């Protein structure tokens, strides 16, 4: 088990994302993906004595990295409940919000959590180990159509129906309990030359379904659009096309579907202005030091 904040997670696009927040010394900021605390520590280094940072994480392991600072409040919760918690702390407006949506290296490296196909481990994948269905529950309980939908929508797997059928066939003989069982059930359908990529998509799809990631992302972004004050910044780091599409749509149109809404005069109704029209990606030195950053994209918007 990874113990230290340093090993827990190397923050991605650290300077670029914190610079994007355009931090005001006395401002109120939210880091909805605390993890190892790398981004949060950088935010705290830039706010003054009257500023405050609220950081969210639903994973109990992240609590080991809590920062001892009177300007810091840790919220153990899914970030989809952002507005509820800000109301609880009597915060009506915030100056900026940061989200690093990727799964932390800690989760992939923890052999007991089932996030990685590198280890034969219980098929769990819950960010919050206290509640909800595990990945094992899903592959053993969903019917063939529902499973295929998960793999197609969240893994963008073209052979989703064949994979679903293989899982149904396998589980009739043996309950799928571990990552190894899942690989055994589907290995014949993985392309030899792209086996790792296919497995990554399979595991990604299950993780998204287990943690309701797309629904949580929508709820958080809508919450942020209500909480951010005029001129407040929204900085979101994404890692795959599904979440990036939602973030891009919300920043450009104000809704996750990307539907342009206009007022009587034909003006587009959107609460945000894009700060960077082109996504920000990691520099070469970061790519070399932190392979996890390879697919990272940073989008920044300002509340208008």
Would you write up a description of this structure?
The protein has 304 residues and is an alpha/beta fold. 39% of the residues lie in helices and 13% in strands. It has helices at residues 5-8, 14-20, 38-44, 82-88, 105-109, 135-141, 144-155, 160-171, 179-186, 195-211, 213-227, 241-253, 284-289; strands at residues 28-31, 52-56, 72-75, 94-100, 228-238, 272-274, 297-303. Strands 3-2-1-4-5-7-6 form a seven-stranded mixed β-sheet, with helices on both faces. Helix 3 links the parallel strand 1 (28-31) and strand 2. Helix 2 packs across helix 3 (38-44) and helix 7 packs across helix 8. The protein is globular, with a radius of gyration of 20 Å. The mean pLDDT is 90.
Strand content: 5-15%
Helix coverage percent: 25-40%
Q: How many β-strand stretches?
A: 7
Low-pLDDT windows of residues: none
Tell me the overall shape.
globular
Structural class: alpha/beta
Order of helices and strands: HHEHEEHEHHHHHHHEHEHE
**Quaternary structure annotation:** single chain
Using only CA atoms, what is the Rg?
20 Å
What is the terminal separation in angstroms?
A: 44 Å
- How would you characterize the largest beta sheet? 7 strands, mixed
**Mean of residue pLDDT values:** 90
Name the strands of the widest sheet in spatial order: 3-2-1-4-5-7-6
Number of helices: 13
């Amino acid at each position: 088990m990874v113990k230290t904040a340093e090993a827990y997670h190397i923050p991605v696009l650290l300077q670029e994302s914190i610079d994007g927040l355009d931090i005001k010394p006395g401002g109120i900021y939210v880091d909805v993906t605390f993890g190892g605390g790398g981004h949060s520590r950088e935010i705290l280094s830039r706010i003054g004595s009257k500023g405050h940072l609220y950081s969210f994480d639903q994973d109990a392991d992240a609590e080991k990295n809590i920062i001892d600072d009177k300007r810091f409040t840790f919220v153990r919760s899914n970030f989809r409940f952002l507005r509820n918690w800000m109301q609880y702390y009597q915060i009506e407006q915030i100056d900026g919000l940061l989200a690093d949506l990727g799964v932390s290296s800690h989760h992939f490296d923890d052999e007991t959590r089932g996030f990685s196909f590198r280890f034969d481990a219980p098929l769990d994948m819950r960010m919050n180990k206290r509640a909800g269905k595990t990945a094992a529950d899903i592959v053993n309980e969903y019917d063939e159509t529902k499973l295929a939908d998960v793999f197609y929508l969240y893994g963008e797997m073209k052979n989703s129906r064949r994979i679903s059928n293989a899982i149904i066939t396998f589980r009739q003989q043996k309950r799928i309990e571990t990552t190894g069982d899942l690989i055994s059930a589907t290995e014949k359908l993985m392309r030899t030359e792209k086996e790792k990529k296919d497995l990554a998509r399979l595991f990604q799809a299950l993780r998204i379904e287990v943690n309701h990631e797309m629904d949580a992302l929508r709820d958080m972004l809508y919450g942020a659009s209500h909480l951010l004050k005029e001129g407040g910044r929204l900085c979101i780091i994404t890692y795959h096309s599904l979440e990036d599409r939602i973030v891009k749509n919300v920043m450009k149109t104000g809704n996750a579907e990307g539907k342009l809404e206009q007022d009587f005069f034909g003006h587009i109704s959107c609460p945000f202005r894009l700060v960077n029209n082109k996504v920000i990606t990691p520099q070469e030195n970061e790519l070399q030091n932190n392979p996890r950053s390879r697919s990272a994209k940073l989008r920044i918007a300002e509340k208008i």
